[in-house]
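hiii, so i know i said id send this last week but things got crazy w the move. better late than never?? heres the sequnce for the chain we talked about at the cafe, plus the structure i predicted for it. fair warning i was half asleep when i ran it
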Amino acid sequence: MRTIVRIKFGSHLYGTSTPASDLDFKSVFVPSARDILLQRVRGSINGQRPKAEGEKNVASEIDEEAYSLQRYLGLAAEGQTVALDVLFAPRWAMVEPPAPEWEEIERNRHRLITRKSAAFLGYCRQQANKYGIKGSRVAAAQAAFETLDARLKSRGTTAKLGEIAHEIAMLTLATEHMEVLDIDGAMDLNGARRTIRHWEVCGRKMPFTQTIKSAHEVVRRVVDEYGHRARQAAKQEGVDWKALSHAVRVGTQAVELLTTGNVTFPSPNREHLIAIKTGQIVYQAVAEEIEYLLTAVESAAETSTLQESADLFWIDDFIEMIYRAQIA
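okay and structure toks below
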């Protein structure tokens, strides 16, 4: 196994480290010839200490994760944030000078980054749903709950969402944060896939085959969650400030990548991120910023001049060349 790049990762890369921050390293390696030939290359090697559920690192701990070249380039092609952070890491973040193979990857960044940036956009949506308490989301959840509550009383506990499909469609047309969409289900014995219609409310997808009673419970939890979040915003209790700072950072990076094709380290807004991370900014203000960034990322994705998909032919050719050389 031969390492071609190893960087300081996390808060030390973003410029948001505090005395309590642990030290993270990410690296990319070319597997040994023996592992390549025997087809037992590990996609990633994790050096983290085993932790109990919910346990966090302490300042003195070191986390190390290494990716095989093939696994890393696959993650980069998918637009995964960890791969893109490594891809744009500057020389000062590197523990040692990179190998020629890494310099070649850097010269071909344009072949790897795309306008889809699925991970960036998906993460921003996830965090907006998790931390945002935008009024239109609350209204959508409440409207869905009231509709389901009324139909549960009039149709009973065994009725399915499909029985009120028309009402759902009309409500969806008139309300933000709702969508009716078709999702492919499991493949049957004949190799065909059955398409199942779903109702999505504030990110929660419910199949039309689900009972109204079950959907009513799902949406009730959404309403309760938003109510809890509103109370949390007022009191600023139990807030995961580190997660909030990550959401803002990723949203900012996504906008920069989609508009310029680059990601800057340390983060230009690092002082703002530290203020969020240490709880110096009102929760509601951060939640609104995440909502704004979600809109900005979606807009940037629509107008970005980046390519639609990564150059998979170049990736395959590059991996083949490097692995052949390793075996030789």
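btw The longest strand covers residues 178-187. thought thatd interest u
miss u guys!!
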